Amino acid sequence: MAPRSTRKAQLVSLFAGAGGFDIALERAGWDVVVATDHAADAMETLRASKAAGIPIKGRRGKHLAKTTLIEKDVATLTADELRPRSAGPDWRPDLLAGGPPCQPWSSAGHQKGLKDSRGQLIAHMIRLVEELQPRYVLFENVRGLVTAVGPKGAPGEVLRSIQDDLRTLGYSSRIATLNAADYGAAQRRVRLYLIATADHELPEFPEPTHHRYGENGLKPWVSLGELLDSLPPAQHDAVVRPNGIDGDALRQLTPGTGLRTKGRVMNNRPSGQWGYRQDAFLANLGLPSRTIRTASTPDWIKLPEDHDIRRLTWQECAALQGFPRDWRFAGKTSNFFRHIGNAVQIDAVEAIGRTLLESVRNGPADTPPPMPPWPEYLTKRVRYTEAEHRVNGSLRTRILSNK
Fold first, then answer.
1. Three-class DSSP category at 219
2. Is the dihedral of CA 9, 10, 12, 16 positive or negative?
3. Which fold has domain 10-216+342-401?
4. Are 28 and 350 in contact (CB under 8 A)?
């Protein structure tokens, strides 16, 4: 093992969006050299937040202070554009991080996968891995990517092909699904993470710091109610109250339940497969929130001191994602919800960032890292999906085609 490095660890941030990755990794001790996205309002958010000089929690310095912001489609980005101006052609970032658009794989979307043009952006991230040769890669996406089907129609095929493409470039990778609530977030947000390296140690993902019941020496989960208690009162113009027939039904709900969707008949569920309507759920203040979405219809809450239920505000959703209170979201309020919901959960990524920073400072490994197998809980998920496709495949295809 080489001597421990004390230099600044540098990263390139792709698909930066509103800056979730950048906030998390700067808190963990990384320097963001470049952050890039093609969306004008996302880049305006980054520019405004950079200009505001927002302090980095737990560190000296301001967010994005030394970061070059590039508004450009990743499909046309080159390695030369992402290198610092003072760097030579052999410069390598210590980390290339990004979460390509998740809609192609999300259960909340149409799940078109590789047929969706956004699903093909992963290939451009891998191309930039080849061009830049980063010491580490960090990739985030929705849990649905674990079982996403590829050209052969096999669940798990897409994720395995991503790992195979990285392996062709010499990179071994490790995958896991992590729940942000296990790392101190007041949100139950489960996401897929992949870390990869060609010439350094391939570390394990960080151990949880929290547990639902605070078992085994871990802290108990942070509840939605605790998070809301730590925030200023909701701004009057951001509060949305219910009205109409749905409003009457919502007021009758028990916290932790919602209005049901109509049941979908499946071959192994003749009575129907139902769920809660995404826009009609009353949150349980004693638990972390459900996953924050991109829609401007977040969950309803009933505070002890309030006379009626209301929706979570965009400021509260941003806090649940870990954004600083003074982060400068640009555009219309509907854009705020979209950027907040698309972002990574900052507490969870900060924990991963600290692990990767420790590893990169340890220097190159003596031998290339071996490729670890998938965790058993993910292979079981793939097997379950394979069985579900055999039983309900034709019905699911018709349902998705009608979305």
1. strand
2. positive
3. Rossmann fold (3.40.50)
4. yes
Q: Model confidence over 276-296: pLDDT tens digits?
A: 999 999 999 999 999 999 999
What stretch of H or E contains 70? strand 68-71
Whether the Cβ atoms of residue 210 and residue 181 lie closer than 8 Å to each other: yes
- Dmax (CA) for the chain in angstroms is 67
The predicted-structure confidence for 113-146, as pLDDT tens digits, reads as follows: 445 444 578 999 999 999 999 999 999 999 999 9
Average pLDDT, the chain: 90
At 167, which amino acid appears? R
Where is 126: in which H helix or E strand?
Answer: helix 121-132
The residues, any chain, with a CB within 8 Å of residue 281's CB and separated by 6 or more, are 257, 258, 259, 290, 299, 300
Element (DSSP H or E) covering residue 161: helix 157-168
Distance CA 181, CA 176 (A): 15
Give me the count of residues in the chain.
403
pTM above threshold 0.85: yes
CB-based contact 107:146 (threshold 8 Å): no
* CB of 51 closer than 8 Å to CB of 57: no
Distance of CA 286 to the CA centre of its chain: 23
CA distances to 19, 62, 82, 97 from 72, in Å: 15, 24, 11, 16
Selection from 313, 362, 361 nearest residue 336 by Cα: 313
Average the pLDDT over 169-193 and give the result.
98
Whether the CB-CB separation of 139 and 99 falls below 8 Å is answered with yes
Residue 314, both tokens: 């965009």
What single string gives the DSSP state of each residue in 242-263? --HHHHHHHHTPPTTEEEEPPP
CA end-to-end distance (rounded Å), the chain: 53
Q: Phi and psi at residue 136, in whole multiples of 5°?
A: -135, 155
The rounded distance, in Å, linking the Cα atoms of 15 and 74 is: 8
- Give the amino acid at 197: T
* Across 25-43, average pLDDT: 97
Kindly list the domain boundaries of the chain, sorted by start residue.
Answer: 10-216+342-401, 223-325
What is the C-alpha separation between 281 and 248, in angstroms, rounded? 13
